[in-house]
What we know:
Blueprint: E1 2-15, E2 18-23, E3 26-32, H1 39-51, E4 55-56, E5 62-64, E6 72-77, H2 99-117, E7 122-123, E8 131-145
Parallel strand pairs: 3-6, 6-7
Antiparallel strand pairs: 1-2, 1-3, 1-8, 4-5
Helix pairs in contact: 1-2
Amino acid sequence: MRVVIQRVSKASVTVGDEQISSIGQGLLILLGIEESDTEEDIDWLVKKTTQLRIFNDVNGVMNRSVTDISGDIIVVSQFTLHASTKKGNRPSYIRAARPEFAEPVYEKFVASLSQAIGKPVGTGKFGAMMDVSLCNDGPVTIFIDSKNKDF
């Protein structure tokens, strides 16, 4: 399971002409799922994400988590995070999980994240073409792979 975490001052997701999620200060999380992902990956990433100290304290030091600031979160499923560009110029997505596996994992990740922060988490629409808008605060962007915890 891979995530790209972006600290945002605001973010939103639109499908067609309908805005389906929007937040103020918090995190926009792009989530990539592969077939080998388990409950352990979900639990580890939820804990890591909610405890990641990337928000400024009163001294301007990144020392606070999204839960510390009562921030909001949007999670958008993004299979392209598992793109392989090893050969040629057309990425291969063979490592990305099929929708019938990925969607329930995505939903479980969102539910676990919501429980961890004690409030609803915004989402994209699984499998849909979405417009994701954000104001990256900092900018701060973090990449985490649950299969490579030392990265």
